[in-house]
Write a structure and sequence with these properties.
Number of helices: 24
Number of strands: 0
GO molecular function: monosaccharide transmembrane transporter activity; symporter activity
Keywords: Membrane, Sugar transport, Symport, Transmembrane, Transmembrane helix, Transport
Helix content: over 70%
Structural class: mainly alpha
Strand content: under 5%
Largest sheet: none
Membrane topology: Multi-pass membrane protein
Subcellular location: Membrane
Family: Belongs to the major facilitator superfamily. Sugar transporter (TC 2.A.1.1) family.
Length: 500
């Protein structure tokens, strides 16, 4: 279990002297910064809907279209099992995991804003290419540029939000990223629901509208201030002081400013942050933040449901409109859950949300597997009662994920790394996240075809393992100043044996 907390004003620190007030400037910068989540969310939501649209399948994947319409309303685990079709989705994430390392260099040297702007431009270009695609090659190229936008945005935005936020509200502020991700998913599902009726180019509208959040993120990246942490890191000390005063709403920022200067001095001594990340003193951050949590976030199975919700529901025998509407309902649960998490995570803490929601997710996965084992895959249409039960179970699963592994999977890694390795570590976080996102996206439909209902039991078992990981290895980080989180590991029952 987690060890003890951090004493205010630990060795060489001044956290007990920090002051802040709410300011409209702080609110504006955080909202704009969080727009990066809408890029990720819109793509998560739009991909599955587009790949289930008949017009899209006729133009690019006619074999899948014919297989789908052979038994349109019957249950069939393998209806959408096509590796080129899934490559349309997963290619974005393979691109993102490569681009995040370029983002790390830019974020460290030129600041968080620079990566946000580059990410927005790349995503905007990808949206334009996808909307005008004439062949599969153009689709994949567009996805690669979209992946660049995700790689830069997911690398910089969580850092931007965590560094702008005061310790007391860091959880809620950072979860603006998850909130806008959820909003993007929900909007994408709504867009797909209507464009599916626009023949034959509705799918082009869905893909092209990805340019809207990219444009908002580009504008925000140009007008918002750089974070004080990054300005200090770049040696722009006077500017850092002014931004800190403005974002905290007080002139009395000397204590926090001096801590930033001290942290920056330590960071400047680190010449190779990627190699430094593997030192023994950073082993907890490496195992928990850079490897464990970003991998586990994808192994919950939730993003598979988000990617392919319309496809899954059609495979389960729902009609085209019914499947899109059902996925819209479940993604609405994600948005509601993110609001719940934003409001309560700084009160109840990260560990309680991980563990309580993990138990609910396991129950939902078992329930779905049991029902599918008894009722699914016999070449018949599901009854309305069974269909409604599956939608409810997936709704509850997404509701649990949306207040735990969804937002906390980005929050916890962004707040546990010290400044000297923060940008490089965040790149590893995004890289690991995207590796598992791409693998799950690429393999899910094939696994659904071959494992059948067993895929949901597999996800349930993985959620149990990751819950034990949190229970024994993750200390509570709520309300701990970001530059003092390392002290948690020095007092943790397990990690203190390694880092001290």
């Amino acid at each position: 279990m987690a060890g003890g907390g951090v004493l205010d004003g630990g060795p060489g620190k001044r956290a007990h002297l920090y002051e802040h007030k709410f300011t409209h400037y702080f609110f504006f910068t955080c909202i704009v910064g969080a727009m990066g989540g809408s890029l990720f969310g819109y793509d998560l939501g739009v991909s599955g809907g587009v790949t289930s649209m008949d017009d899209f399948l006729i133009e690019f994947f006619p074999k899948v279209y014919r297989r789908k319409h052979m038994h349109l309303n019957e249950t069939d685990y393998c209806k959408y099992d096509d590796q080129v079709l899934t490559l349309f989705t997963s290619s974005l994430y393979f691109s993102a995991l490569v681009m995040t390392f370029f983002a790390s260099f830019l974020t460290r040297k030129k600041g968080r804003k620079a990566s946000i702007i580059v990410g927005a431009l790349s995503f905007l270009l990808g949206a334009a290419i996808n909307a005008g695609a004439k062949n599969i090659a153009m689709l994949i190229i567009g996805r690669v540029f979209l992946g660049g936008g995700i790689g830069f945005g997911n690398q910089a935005v969580p850092l931007y939000l965590s560094e702008m936020a005061p310790a007391k509200n860091r959880g809620a502020v950072n979860q603006l990223f998850q909130f806008t991700t959820c909003a993007g998913i929900l909007i994408a599902n709504l867009v797909n629901y209507f464009t599916e009726k626009v023949h034959p180019y509705g799918w082009r509208i869905s893909l092209g509208l990805a340019g809207v959040p990219a444009t908002l993120m580009l504008i925000g990246g140009m007008v918002c201030s750089e974070t004080p942490n990054s300005l200090v890191e770049q040696g722009r000390l006077d500017e850092a002081r002014k931004v800190l005063e403005r974002v905290r709403g007080t002139k009395n920022i000397e204590a926090e400013y001096l801590d930033l200067v001290d942290a920056s001095a330590e960071a400047q001594a680190v010449k190779d942050p990627f190699r430094t990340l593997f030192k023994r003193k950073y082993r907890p951050q490496l195992v928990i933040g850079a490897l464990g949590i970003p991998a586990f976030q994808q192994l919950t199975g939730n993003n598979s449901i988000l990617f392919y919700a319309p496809v899954i529901f059609q495979s389960l025998g729902f009609g085209a409109n019914a499947s899109l509407f059902s996925s819209f309902i479940t993604n609405g649960a994600l948005l509601v859950a993110s609001v719940i998490s934003m409001g309560l995570v700084d009160k109840f803490g990260r560990r309680k949300f991980f563990l309580e929601a993990g138990f609910e997710m396991i129950i939902c996965m078992i329930a779905v597997a049991v029902v599918l084992a008894k009722e699914f895959g016999h070449g018949k249409e599901l009854s309305k009662g069974i269909s409604a039960f599956l939608v409810v179970m997936i709704f509850l699963f997404v509701l649990a994920y949306g207040r735990s592994w969804g937002p906390l999977g980005w929050l916890v890694p962004s707040e546990i790394f010290p400044l000297e390795i923060r940008s490089s570590a965040q790149s590893v976080v995004v890289c690991v996240n995207m590796i598992f996102t791409a693998l799950v996206a690429q393999l899910f439909l094939m696994s659904l075809c071959h494992l059948k209902y067993g895929i949901f039991l597999l996800f349930g078992g993985l959620i149990f393992i990751m819950s034990m990981f949190v229970l024994f290895l993750l200390p509570e980080t709520k309300k701990v100043p970001i530059e003092e989180v390392y002290l948690l590991f020095e007092n943790h029952w397990f990690w203190k044996k390694i880092v001290t």
